[in-house]
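1st attempt posting a full record on here, be nice pls
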Amino acid sequence: MSFIRPVFRHPDLPTNKIGYSRQDYEGALSTLCAGCGHDSVSGAIVQACFEMDIEPHRVAKLSGIGCSSKTPAYFLNNSHGFNSVHGRMPSVATGANLANRDLMYLGISGDGDSASIGMGQFVHAIRRNLNITYILMNNGCYGLTKGQDSATADAGSINKSGHANQFAGIDMAGLALEMGASFVARSFSGDKHQLIPLIKAAMSHPGFALLDVISPCVTFNNNPGSTKSYDYTREHLETTAALDFVPYQTEITAQYMPGTALQVALHDGSFIQLAKLAPNWDPFDRHLAMNRVFEAKAKGEVLTGLIFIDQKQPDLHAMLDTTAKPLNQLTQHELAPSLQVLESLNASWR
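the predicted structure (as tokens):
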């Protein structure tokens, strides 16, 4: 059940370059628990799309089943949307992306939807480098079914019932790196200053962009002993680098002194600005990223920031050599080969 937001807003709300106010990127009122980290992620998506001057009708929101998969109702009310069955969002997104490559695809999932029943679909979307921003709201439990441990719950983490999890947790960022993801980042729902730039960077990346967001469940997994609680996450945050996303504008390029930052060029002419804090950190080195993820896990750290990026890896359309025109816009004349083309094709096999 969702509720409609009041339509009244202050007449002098600031607008972005295309004339939209932040209100134009909102959705229905949230029915999630008060204080849920997922609502903070929804708010960050709203702010990121507003700042990026994205036309809402150019976005397709896709989700599966779970608390996280309810959130597309709470942002981008004027965007396309599809709520699929449990764990099947990646295949729906693949079909939609192949049919219409002109849309921006935003996949919303959770640790149950992607790390359990949807694991097979998740890894195949990665290996195909599907052009999608995949936001995984990770709370380590099944919030819709009374808080059982999910597949991402860390071994030894204590749930609300007081029981310690006996099984090793699946690190979704580490898995994505192993499967060849071209963009891997992690953030915390309570850190909007890091989360918003990461969302903007992920949405500008040409390929599969995983953003694993630790998003505590205030009802079932925010207790002492839980490694996905607000207190634990804040106490164990380890940031790879200070991150900002800067849209390409010539007037600001001279503000950065040589050697003080690393500029990562993106496909649309914009770039990510990385102020390197960690010694020898290189976001282009997949092996270094994997080692750092496993090192953080062994130390009990929550590694956040841009972990890895590869802009040279071809996306699914490039690998399949599809037409630049979206398939859903092709006419019968374009789809039906002429007699001359058929004769030439037949002759090539004689």
